[in-house]
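Aim 2 progress update. The chain analyzed this quarter is reproduced below.
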Amino acid sequence: MRLLFATAELRPLASAGGLGEAAAGLTAALAAHPEVQVITVLPDYRRWPLEDVQQLDLDVPEWAAPASVRLGHHADAGLLALVDVPGIERPDPYVDTDGNGWGDNDQRFGAFSMAVAALAHRLDVDLVHLNDWHTALVPAFLADAIPSVLTIHNLAHQGWADPSWIHRLPTHRDAYEWGNAVNGLAGAIATVDRVVTVSPHYAREIVTAEGGMGLHLRLADRGEDLVGILNGIDTRAWNPELDPHVPPYTPTDLTGKATARAALLDHCGWTDLGDPLVVLVTRLVEQKGVDYAFEAARFLDGMRTRMIVLGSGERRLADWARWLVGEHPDRFWFHDGYDGPLSHLLFAGGDLLLMPSRFEPCGLAQMQAMAYGTVPVVTPVGGLLDTVIDADARPDGNGFVASALDESGVVDALHRGLRGVRHGGRRRALQRRGMTHDWSWTEPAARYVELYDSVLARRQS
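Predicted structure tokens:
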């Protein structure tokens, strides 16, 4: 099977969040599958070097021209097709230095979608796998003979564009026309062969008015063609036994985790009071429920715990975090920005991961934390419900799930989590369950291959 996998992000080349992590993990697992030859296609944002390069010029309309592809091998990404279209080369894929979206993002990613379709024809692939709104216009430019699959990583971002875009689409115009605008994701949902979300619970949430972000009816119309496949994590990059950023340790010997705790306390400038460490590695945005965590920080003294936050995002939340540092200098610590090695140290040195998301299509941090023996405390949404089992509700629990999606629910779950990790035997049982579970991409990739096969079989019949 010759598969073209189209994405706007791919770790470590370009990654603004979960999409880059997921694309890297899944394509690596697919490349190892004997039935699949995967070609990953990515915008050529920064002219990355490739080996054994083949230059291809693409036949596209004038509004997307000139378009070309450098096809070759990358040391980390494997077989890679880097697409050059007007305006695509930027220091950040989506935003300027002030955090505002590039004003021509619709043009940039519309041209990228056109180029992906042209490349699919040029390479005569068997199937195209699309990811999120950045590739959502591809089906409008793709010959109906080439089947396609769409993975929705976050339904909140839909690829809205000016209504004049409808005249650039050669097919499926009715599907993309949405009110007095063009909605890329709405059109792709209606026209691809199968729609996938990144967890089973999220697949159920997005067909409801509360979780569907205005697209619930269109998604519900797909019936059994909408499925949820839980993401994995890169178990080479997120493995405390092999991680160069932390002292090594295993499920049966956690000595290195204690050393990582000491290193984390030292990084924060704290002495060890013996209190549990609650860590957050997150984007500072409303979706992530960071305000729930910051409200809970009022109780740090009473709960005898400390909170360490690593993340960047909305200014008001960053300002709130800095205020909390001033109010609770011995209890609250904040790093504004993303720091890869530091995130590994937080997962290794922390006792609890707090992840109070308002919605979470899949979530990676909770799986990464469990791989490091840090117990998750989460809200009852999306992929968090597919990965975290409440230890107060089931004997096979690996974490703690809030009973309600609000501040009181988060505080109660945090209290229960603190009680759990303060009990030595229970803590070790929770850590062992998280660390020994297979969080890799092996099973998700196998499920995707089954889905591809079913699409091709249905097309042939």
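DSSP finds 17 helices and 17 strands in the chain. The longest strand covers residues 51-58. These observations will guide the mutagenesis experiments scheduled for the next reporting period.
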